[in-house]
Amino acid sequence: MEIKKAESSFVVLAIQHNPSVFFGNFLIESGIIESEKEIDLQNTIATPAFAEINFINQENINLTPEKLIIKGAFGTSPFEKGVKYCKALPYISYKGIGINFTYRISGVSINKFVKDIDAPYIANQLKIVFPHDHGICNLTLKEIKKGEMIEAKFNFDYKVPEPLKLGKIHVDILEEREKNSNKAEQVIHEIFE
User: Fold this and answer.
1) Phi, psi torsion values for 96, nearest 5 degrees
2) What distance in Å separates the CA atoms of residue 79 and residue 61, rounded to the nearest whole number?
3) Are 132 and 180 contacting, i.e. CB atoms less than 8 angstroms apart?
4) pLDDT tens-digit profile of 32-67?
5) How far from 102 is each of 36, 70, 185, CA to CA, in Å?
6) What CA–CA distance (Å, rounded) separates 41 from 54?
7) Band (163; pLDDT cuts 50, 70, 90)
8) How far apart are CA 41 and CA 90, in angstroms?
9) What is the spatial distance between Cα 156 and Cα 134, in angstroms, rounded to a whole number?
10) Greatest Cα-to-Cα distance within the chain, rounded to the nearest angstrom
11) DSSP summary character for residue 123
């Protein structure tokens, strides 16, 4: 079995993000980026209803009034960008955050795993939900190369009982990123070894 880290993302569910905030110098002034040269301007759009900012390092930000998603390959900095976004706009009310990881696991088959347990199995995909310190984790296992490779998507959800301001975010995002990444790898080993 070989485990490869593929992607990570940071999500903020909000009452009202403002996608047009990405016009002008907001990304630089908030410290999310250092220079406009980091942006892939040919593949970037920002409107009052939707923004998609692509970076030359393959990271990307998608923003609608309800959801912010910052994602990138492992080794990039979506969580750091997310922390800076939250600090730059502390007055935005949020309903939850997500700390997510995608792994590719070769040398394993979902069929062998599914035969051994009684679980819902649909179209080469298995969904598992388990609790974590501050919420739940949704794990989706999907066979992407039959009998050879599985994609494991971990979505660590942090819901709040009532909307809070981003300035009062209830967890340390960077600490949770580290803890959840370790938990994800532990779960992979427990399932497939």
Assistant:
1) 180, 160
2) 11
3) yes
4) 999 989 999 899 998 889 999 999 998 999 999 999
5) 28, 14, 10
6) 7
7) confident
8) 27
9) 9
10) 55
11) T
> In the chain, what are the domain boundaries?
2-192
Q: How far is CA 52 from CA 16, 59, 112, 125, 176, in A?
A: 17, 11, 40, 29, 26
What does the chain come to in residues? 193
Which pTM was predicted? 0.87
How many helices (H) and strands (E) are present in the chain, helices listed first? 4, 10
Average per-residue pLDDT for the chain: 87
Give phi and psi for 147, each to the nearest 5. Answer: 70, 0
Question: Chain-centre distance of CA 58, in angstroms?
Answer: 14
pLDDT at 118: 56
Question: 62 exposed, middle or buried (CB, 10 Å; 0-12, 13-18, 19+)?
Answer: middle
Backbone angles phi, psi at 32, to 5 degrees: -65, -40
Q: Are 63 and 13 in contact (CB under 8 A)?
A: no
Return the pLDDT at 4. 94
Q: Which of 6, 4, 10 is closest to 60 using CA atoms?
A: 10
